Structures are given as structure tokens and as C-alpha cells.
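Journal club side-thread
Mid-discussion, someone asked how the predicted structure for our own chain would compare to the paper's figures. Pasting it here so we can look after the session.
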Amino acid sequence: MPQILIDPDSHALGERYALVKSRRRDRPRFPSGCVTPVADAASAQAGADPGRYIHPALVYGPSRSSEGQQVWYLVRWLDE
């Protein structure tokens, strides 16, 4: 996992539970189109569908990448 710099004064960035659609689970960050924030860990676990590559996670963001995309950083997978 990459070192994530967290700004404690930021009101836009934060840790959120989410469903992440990805075939690869070794990536440190995901584009916004692959991440669906949910209310809590239980919702993330309930919405998981490994057959469709949808995994529950705790993510940080959204942040802007150097390419101008909105990205979410993986904090940890909830099903490992």
C-alpha cells in the first residue's frame, strides 16, 4: 500500500466505506468511476459481489491525480 498523506484540516477528503469494481486487487488507487461510496462497513460487505469483481473496501479521497482524474486511495480491503 502507498503512503497516504492525510490532511487533517480537509473537509473534502476523508475515509469512506465503498464498493470497488476491479479485477486486480493489488492497485493502490482507483479512478472514481470504479468506486461507489456506501454508508457503512455493513453496507459495503452486503454489496460485495466477487463474481462481478465488486469488493468492499475502506478508501480515502476523492483526490485529484497528476493527470487531472479524480481518484480514491485504498486504505484496506474489508474482506481480507
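Post-session note: The first helix runs from residue 41 to 47.
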